[in-house]
Each structure stands twice: as C-alpha cells, then as structure tokens.
Amino acid sequence: MDILMPRLSDTMEEGVVASWHAKVGDEVHAGDVLVEIETDKALMEHESYQDGVLTEILVPEGGSADIGAPIGRMRVAGEPEDGAAAPTGAVEGSAPAQPEAPAEPAAAATPSTPDTATAAAAPSGAPSGTVAPAAGTNGARVRATPLVRRLARESGVDLGTLTGSGPGGRIIRADLDRATPAPAAAPAPVEQPAAVAVPVTEDDEVTPLGSMRRTIARRLADSMRTAPHFYLTRTVDAGPMGQLRAELNAKLVAADRPKISLNDIVLRAVAVALRRHPEMNSSFGEDAIVTHNRVHVGMAVATPAGLVVPVLRDADTRSLTDIAGTARELAGKARDRKLSPAEMTGSTFTVSNLGMFGVDQFTAVINPPEAGILAVGALREEPGVVDGAVAVVKRMTVTLSVDHRVVDGAQGAQFLADLAQLLENPWLAVV
C-alpha cells in the first residue's frame, strides 16, 4: 500500500520530507505519526490511517514529492508480504473505497473565499492526500492527483486521453508534461532570472531554497508582475493610540490579564475600516471581482524560515483584547511552525508591521489574491504644532499598497482617510 504525499495547505503543490518517525520494518498503528512534512508554510505531522508495517521509504529525509506521489509503502493486515494483493486503489492517506460518485466539477477561476478555501484543498469527507478519480470527455474514469487535475484544466488537456504511469495507473505530472505541447514563443517564466548562474567561491555559503522560500519567491514575483500596484502614504497622530494602550494596559495588568500592543489596535482599526469599505475587502478573479462578506485580516509574521501570514478571522466582530490574544497565539505558532492550514488560509487583507524594527516607512507587496496590504512604520517622536505652539508629538506613517485592477485611486484614498481617523481616534475602533 502506497503512502502518498498529502495536501496540507491550499497553496501546496509539493512537500519536503523533513523526517520519518518510523524505520523500514517498524510496526505502525493507526494514529501514529509516520512522517513530518515541510510545506510551503509550515512543518506538519502526517499520521497513518491504518495498522501495518513500513516496508519501504521512497522519498528520504530532505527529498521532495508532488502532492499525491508515493513517498513510502507499508503492508497492512491481510496483505501478502510482497504487497502484490493490495486492494485496487488502497493508498495511505486515501478514504475507504466508496461507490463511484459523479465527476468532481472543475474549480472556479475566481480566488477561494475564506469559507471555501479549506474545502478546496480536498474532496469533502476525504483526508488530505486523497487522490480522487476524474472523468475524461469520453466518460472513462481516470485517477490523478489534485495538482495534475488543476494543471490539466489550465493547459486544456483531457485526462481521459492519457495513460497513467503511476501506481495503479494513476496519471502523474510526468504523464501530463509529455502530453502538453510547449507554447510557441512563450515568454520566459518569472523564475528565469533567479536561475542565472551565480559565481560561487570556496568562501561562499550556499543554502538550498526550502519549500517555504520557493513559494514566497514565486507568489510575490507573480504579485508584482500581474497586479498593478499603486501606493498611498499617510502620517497619523499616534499619540491617542499610545494613550489608549497605556490606559487599557494599566487596567489589564491590574486584572491579571495580558496586555495589548499598538499593532493590536492597528489590526482592529483596519478590520473596522474594511467593513466600511468592502471594495478593499475584495479579490481579483479572471473574469470577476469577488467581494468578501467576511473580514479576515492576515498579519505578516517573520520566521527564520520565511514570511508567513496567519489569519484573524472575522476581525471586525472581535474585541480588541480578543484580537490581541489571538494575534499573540498565532504569532507564537508561526515562529514554531505549528500553524494549521486553516490558520493560514482565507485572509482578505493583510497588515505588515516593521515598526518594531525601527523602520519609519516602507511599501509592501500585495499578498495575492487580495486587493491591498497595509505597511505600518514605527511610532516616533518629532517636533510638531499643537494648539499653535511647537511641541513633541508622536507620529506613525502607514502606506497602503493597492491592486489597481480592483480599487481605484479615489477609493483607496477614502479607505486610508477613514483608517487614519480611526487610528487618531482609536476609541471609535474599540467600541
């Protein structure tokens, strides 16, 4: 029985085997952790669905494989030692055999909404890694991985016309690549510049790209290439935010409760502003603009492995202290690479704060398919005029990056004006 590379996030196309928790010949029970998989966003454990014996490791530690590709084999109860009599289609990570169901419809071209992002990762009722049958134009049933089915739709290839070379006749990516004609005079892919040979001397240190760093490079390059960015900058009076934070933290400490940060206030204000300006809470699809009815704010978190964006769901309906507690928990899990797929998918707008590093102002790259991202600088003291007199004032500069395909300049300016009002009068965002 094959152990397949599971699908562990909605953007995952391949995974890296970080470590095997069992050796060849070990007995494995249902629920035991078989292997740790490094995805494009996190390090996650994959459990066995059945009792058996691990008979072969196909992908060693550090190796990678496409979603649905075999990474190992195990012998389950009732299966001969050579594994020849394994039931057709029985694979580790697949659901038990069921009666044939109608063909799965092709995924819509528009971005996944927060409520459907998790469901899109695998067919309903099947665990991650399930290889579902697909149907060709001739009505024949074919077996292919989710990645292969998506690539086939994008390239217009009928899977029913292909012969699979994978286990059990499954169509794998190599079969699809052989059947897909190379486009004439196709432009060079974005990754080409990164592939230019770099002179390396004995004094240089070469670090292979991890799965997360490769995904960050691909997604952000795609964002800069496809989304026409424009930028709006505003400097706000941050004194009231600092005063509110000090007053609330004094009461929270007295009540033996965790304190809040300036970033928590910014996250709450952004959520309120997004509710008032639904055009900023939108995504660009191939043939339509999708306006999200729920406000899910992503917060960029730097980790040693790269940037991840955990999601504060329904942030516009949550209290400031609730946002603060959830943000603290998600940031800790991000740094420990313990975020679940559900905690990293479905954001409708992102906030990136580099103020804690002393950065006064910067511009951020939009997290696709969102319409915008807010870059937050440091709170700083500088001379200003208060009631006609020169005084020391606290200020903060925020820069809004906007996808011009979704939002026009005036709409972005109105959103930023309302956000500035909330930041300068933070009680309006709290109550």
Which percent band covers the strand fraction? Answer: 15-25%
Tally of helical runs = 9
Mean pLDDT: 79
Terminal-residue CA separation: 57 Å
Largest sheet: 7 strands, mixed
| Helix content range | 10-25%
What is the number of strand segments? Answer: 22
The gyration radius over C-alpha positions equals 25 Å
Shape: elongated
Low-confidence stretches: 83-135, 184-194
Structural category: alpha+beta
SSE order and pairing:
Layout: E1 2-4, E2 14-20, E3 27-28, E4 33-38, E5 43-47, E6 52-57, E7 64-66, E8 70-76, E9 91-92, H1 117-120, E10 133-135, E11 141-143, H2 146-155, H3 173-179, H4 211-226, E12 229-237, H5 239-254, H6 262-276, E13 282-284, E14 289-291, E15 297-299, E16 301-303, E17 306-308, E18 311-312, H7 320-335, E19 349-353, E20 372-376, E21 380-386, E22 389-403, H8 409-424, H9 427-430
Parallel strand pairs: 1-9, 15-19, 19-20
Antiparallel strand pairs: 1-8, 2-4, 2-7, 3-6, 4-5, 6-8, 10-11, 12-22, 13-14, 15-18, 16-17, 20-22, 21-22
Helix pairs in contact: 6-7, 6-8
Structure description:
This protein is an alpha+beta fold and 431 residues long. It has nine helices and 22 strands. It has helices at residues 117-120, 146-155, 173-179, 211-226, 239-254, 262-276, 320-335, 409-424, 427-430, and strands spanning 2-4, 14-20, 27-28, 33-38, 43-47, 52-57, 64-66, 70-76, 91-92, 133-135, 141-143, 229-237, 282-284, 289-291, 297-299, 301-303, 306-308, 311-312, 349-353, 372-376, 380-386, 389-403. Strands 12, 15, 18, 19, 20, 21 and 22 form a seven-stranded mixed beta sheet that branches. A five-stranded mixed beta sheet has the order 3-6-8-1-9, with no helix packed on it. Strands 5-4-2-7 form a four-stranded antiparallel beta sheet, with no helix packed on it. The chain is elongated, with a radius of gyration of 25 Å.
